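Question:
Write out your own:
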Amino acid sequence: GLDDDDDDDENEMNDFIVDEEDELDEQGNVIRRKEKKKRQSNVQGISGYALSEAQEIFGDTTDLLEMYQERKKQREQVEAEGTENTEGLNEDERALLLAQKNLEPAVIAANFYTQSDERIRKEDRPEREQLLSARIGELSEVAYDMEAEWIYRRVFQPPAEPRVRDEADRQWKEDSDPTGNRPSFLRFLLEHGRREEGERAYRRWKEDCRVARAEGAEEPQEPVPETPEEDATAVKKAIERCLRYIHLEHLEVPFIAMYRKEYVMPLLRARPEEWMEEREEGKLPPPGKIRRWDLLWAVQDWHNRYVLLERRRLALQRIFEKAGVEMEGAQAEEVERCLAALHTADTQEACEDAEAKFKLHFPDDLRNLRGESEGLKRLVRQSHYAHYKAQGVDALAKQLGLSAYELGENLNSVYKKYEPQDPDQDPEELAAAHV
């Protein structure tokens, strides 16, 4: 029955399970076996659970433990070498130095632990200004009066539009008095872009004249506006103060506008579009009303452009002067012309023109002075001008016609400033001297 089947199953399993015979002592008692000692179950720095799990997976972990201990010694040695150079540093600085040595550069940059980030944190300057200075550079010496004049010409002296001039002419004709004389102060204000101020002053003056005539009193004289020299001087002084605040005291535009406004008051003016909006509503804003900081931001923007221009101009000046030391005669005169053109250059385009002029006459010198001759370089195609100049034909060309400078002067002048000089020799004799 069922019991017989169970016995048969147990008999079959008897051959599969092997029981080791227990050791007996002299009295026949079973000797308890000694448990195998767990090897290195408490390794320093590794939990027992992690070690047992590693033994279950890899079996004997002796080699892994030896490798772990070796790498641990190497890390301790690196940290010991790093701490030798960290004497006098606090705990945070020492940790930052170790992190920079042991972590990946991408991780360090993502968490702002680089040396440049540390310099930004230590320096008492706005981060935006430091990043901008690193990109465009800085000037060791700044002539603030010259820079203020340069910015004034670009921000406050835009070219007059024809529409504005036509409107001014129409207003002069409409507002002329019976004798045909136009009000001088109105014309002056219109010429200097102060149209709204001129209209207000002219309306007040006409109203005062009407009241004086009604009362039988003497009519008032025309108001005398500020001269352009006085108005320009005030604006230039404000620009110069703003530049000093930005460059020397490292102040930003919002701070200057709110806490230094009494020193830059001429720069705090309304936008042109705001004048037009209020004019359509039939009212005009009072003069000197503070509205926006546009001009302060413009001064800062043009200051950055001036720094780039001045750094490029100084770099070209050093190259030209270094090249002129070894040149004599006509070549030295050409270098002086290039330096003169560079000194008057107040735009990037003018610097490019001066550089192109120097490169035209001394292409090899410019490359050598810039260090472009070292290492591999692209093959430079020689132009016909350079070829004939190397053959000495330039001396013949100087005796015929006008030079490029003289031709340019004639084109810019309203008259023929330079006349071409014809040589006294015959063409055959002149050419034979250069063959």
